[in-house]
Amino acid sequence: MPAPEEALSARNVTFSGHGEAPVNAYEALPAGDGPFGGVLVVHHLPGWDSATKEITRRFAARGYNALCPNLYARQGFDVDTDDAAAATRQAGGIPDEQFVGDAAGAVAALRALPTSNGKAAVIGYCSGGRHAFLTAVSLDIDAAVDCYGAFVTGTPPEGFPLRVTPLVDRTPQLACPLLGLFGNDDQFPSPEQVDELEAALRAAGKTYEFHRYDGAGHAFFNVDRPAYRAEAAVDGWRRIFEWFDRYLAGG
Amino acid sequence: MCSYLTVPTDIAGSAKGEPGWFAVTSAQVYFDHPFHAPFDHTLNIDFTDPSRGPGARVAVELSAESARRLVASIEAALAAAGPAAR
Fold it and tell me: Which of A50, A115, A166, B83 is the most exposed place for a label (fewest CB within 10 A)?
């Protein structure tokens, strides 16, 4: 539920991830007793950075318990975020199985918060968009948002260094409503790949809503980069909050 | 876009970074989102010694145009050095 005063608190926490491994995470909680829905925020390929933590705080300001795990935690808690991202990239990325285990731990941590209303959603950006979809076809959650996630559909190019495979075949297992936000100038995912995902969702009879923005490419939410598109980002934030307000209410 | 593509190469030499001077054995070259430079995409090079952990890294993020100029400068310097650089 919205917290109109936008008061919040944030801190670093640790939870149990895949294989019981400790994973550090950035937690932002609204002021007040709740109950609040939970949002798992999945960072992009450059890692557990300040921009994604700012997004995490924004969800708390709106009235959601928000948790952003460091998906590169296995490089060490005391390693600089950018170094951890580079080392993970060099190692071929993180395996899907490990991500799902970490996401399951994060969702459990959100639901275990004393102010939780028992509901949880996922949102991810860029590579995190694919992770959001992966979460939604793997775990029992209440809503998902995929922001320009590449390789949900489409085959990675030859020589691709990361362990990434398409997920579209798992669309029938999608367990919750999916909101997708995409830029029409994006190449990964291209508009045709977004079409393919939409066709799969329709064929499987899933609840979804896609919004595609002209004049926007990849990463149009990223306020620190030339890719930022105010019109798309402002409308996108509105759609995200409407989605979560609809599917995370009550409990 | 996320290019994701990485072109690695083995190297021999040293670099100076957080741990001070250290031997570098690998260079990861990729064109993708930068961590720090104010561009959508940059040509990124990580000079690393993976055996020393993630912190043994010297990173640069260059605009595409400046990366091409750098390539030309490296080629020019090697050419000017003559036999010593063969």
Answer: B83
- The answer to the question of residue B60 being in a domain is yes
The verdict on residue B86 lying in a domain is no
Please name the member of A46, A90, A217 whose beta carbon is closest to the beta carbon of B1: A217
Out of B2, B46, B55, name the one closest to residue A126 (CB).
Answer: B2
- Chain A contact set for B40 (CB, 8 A): 217-219, 225-227
Record the tokens describing residue A217, joined without a space: 């490419």
Q: Which tens digit of pLDDT belongs to each residue from A137-169?
A: 999 999 999 999 988 998 777 666 666 788 999
The answer to whether residue A229 is domain-embedded is yes
B29 touches chain A (CB under 8 A): no
* Sheet-wide strand order for A65-69: A8-16, A22-30, A65-69, A36-42, A116-125, A143-147, A178-183, A208-213
Whether residue B42 has pLDDT greater than 60 = yes
ipTM above threshold 0.95: no
Q: Assign A52 a pLDDT band (cuts: 50, 70, 90).
A: very high
What is the domain range of residue A177?
8-247
Q: How many domains does chain A have?
A: 1
